[in-house]
From TrEMBL:
This is isochorismate synthase. InterPro entries: ADC_synthase, Chorismate_C, IsoChor_synthase. PANTHER family: ISOCHORISMATE SYNTHASE ENTC. It catalyses: chorismate = isochorismate. Its EC number is 5.4.4.2. GO terms for molecular function: isochorismate synthase activity. Gene3D superfamilies: Anthranilate synthase. It comes from Nocardiopsis terrae. Belongs to the isochorismate synthase family. NCBIfam families: isochor_syn. SUPFAM superfamilies: ADC synthase (SSF56322).
Length: 427
């Protein structure tokens, strides 16, 4: 574990960047890329000025324990206290910034917070460069290096994950039985798939494909977790918090008419509306104690993505004084969009029947700045990239009315996000 007691002194400088041309991804050198992108906006970073890897909790720790998030909050506060910050831009994502990924379960290794040495950001027509160094720097632009061309991923070999398709459908059927017997109301069950390339995967290729294919999603890369999630756990700017809850999935139609029909069918489906309602309720219950004001729409809307469409609810809150972004992340994780209802029962069932460690999949992933601004997605439609291998994850909400074959097909549409980022069918 990192030395939490004596953080290094950091010199942080943010300066405006005049050159806003091109994708932020093109700025990244090859290697451990850090990124949080939404269309053309976002932040990318590289190098490591500071890193924390919160230890996994011992076996037997309650599955809802979020002390790894509280530990990260203390660590970042300590860094800030020892940092000398000169910020000429003053936007969310300027000054000292840490990227972060937290595991779904407290007992899994893999949570990490990384403060990059160099960060480039863009928001609308403003762009900036932040450097984080051990000595003051006079010319931060000198730390910007021309990046190399991304390397194509090349041929892939696919292997099934921890469970075969049939074994996973059996787990879904067993879960439906337990839900019908009254043990719980909902559990989100996931599966994995493994891709092996012939050389280390250049994450920049994945980021560029994901960001252009899913401009309304959040494309991320933090400590090996790479993906494009549509689900915003929270965005905090000042005391305003926004969250986008998703649960309920249908494919996209072949044409506008069938697409509309599939969407309307989902809006009218008791099974999908129940599955979605449980996710909204869990968010509302977690947020209420932290909010001075809370607005939750009565009905979901449809959110169309390139591969699937979802039921979506956008929630707004004004946070009570003193509530930080990471306080809110710790209170909200895991929502019933990735765990279930009741939370503890669902998390124990997930641990029992999935046959794999989710790692950072379905955990919070995002960034935090020194002013308390922050964006955290839920790590969905993602993979853990480790050298030349990638472990892809996808899941779906199981309720009393779920059909195992339909759920397996749903995970396959969700896998497509990362399958096509790794092996673009359009060449
Ligand atoms: C668990 C996943 O999706 C969640 C988020 C949106 C819709 C979901 C659903 O309809 O089941 C899931 O709750 C995943 O993408 O792996």
């Amino acid at each position: 574990m990192n030395a939490v007691l004596s953080p290094p002194k950091l010199f942080v400088r943010t300066v405006p960047l005049r050159d806003r041309a091109g994708s932020l991804v093109r700025r990244l050198p090859e290697g451990a890329a850090l990124a949080w992108l939404s269309g053309d906006d976002g932040i990318v970073g590289w190098g490591e000025a500071a890193r924390l890897e919160p230890e996994a909790a011992p076996a037997g720790t309650p599955p809802t324990d979020n002390s790894r998030i509280a530990q990260a909050a203390r660590w970042f506060t300590g860094l800030l206290e020892h940092a000398e910050v000169e910020d000429e831009v003053g936007l969310p994502g300027t000054g000292l910034v840490t990227f972060g990924t937290f595991t779904f379960a407290p007992t899994s290794p893999g949570s990490a917070l990384v403060v990059p040495r160099v960060l480039v950001g863009r928001r609308g027509d403003r762009a900036w460069l932040t450097t984080v160094t051990d000595e003051p720097v006079e010319h931060p632009e000198e730390l910007l290096r021309p990046a190399t061309e991304p390397r194509p991923v090349g041929p892939l070999e696919w292997r099934p994950g921890s469970l075969t398709r049939q074994e996973w459908m059996d787990a879904v059927a067993g879960t439906v039985g337990r839900i019908r017997a009254g043990e719980l109301e909902k559990a989100v069950l996931a599966r994995d798939a493994i891709a092996r390339a012939q050389s280390p995967v250049d994450v920049r290729v994945l980021l560029e494909r994901l960001r252009t294919r899913f401009p309304s999603c959040f494309t991320f890369s933090v400590a090996g977790m790479v993906g494009a999630t549509p689900e915003l756990l929270l965005r905090r700017e000042g005391d305003q918090l926004t969250s986008l809850v998703l649960a309920g999935t249908r494919p996209r139609g072949e044409d506008a008419e069938s697409d509309r029909r599939l969407g309307q069918e989902m809006m009218a489906s008791a099974k999908d509306v129940e599955e979605h309602g449980l996710a909204v309720d869990s968010l509302r219950a977690a947020l209420e104690p932290l909010a001075a004001e809370l607005a939750v729409p009565a009905w979901p809307h449809l959110l169309g993505l390139a591969n699937v469409q979802h039921l979506a609810t956008r929630v707004h809150a004004r946070l009570a004084p003193g509530v930080s972004a990471l306080d809110a992340v710790a209170a909200l994780h895991p929502t019933a969009a990735v765990g279930g209802t009741p939370t503890e029962t669902a998390m124990r069932l997930i641990g029992e029947v999935e046959g794999m460690d989710r790692g950072g999949y379905t955990g919070p992933v995002g960034w935090l700045d020194g002013a308390g601004n922050s964006e955290w997605g839920i790590a969905l439609r993602c993979a853990r990239v480790d050298g030349s291998s990638a472990r892809l994850y996808a899941g779906g909400g199981i309720v009393a009315g779920s059909d195992p074959a339909a759920e397996a097909a749903e995970t396959e549409s969700k896998f497509r996000v990362m399958r096509e980022a790794l092996a673009d069918p359009r060449g």
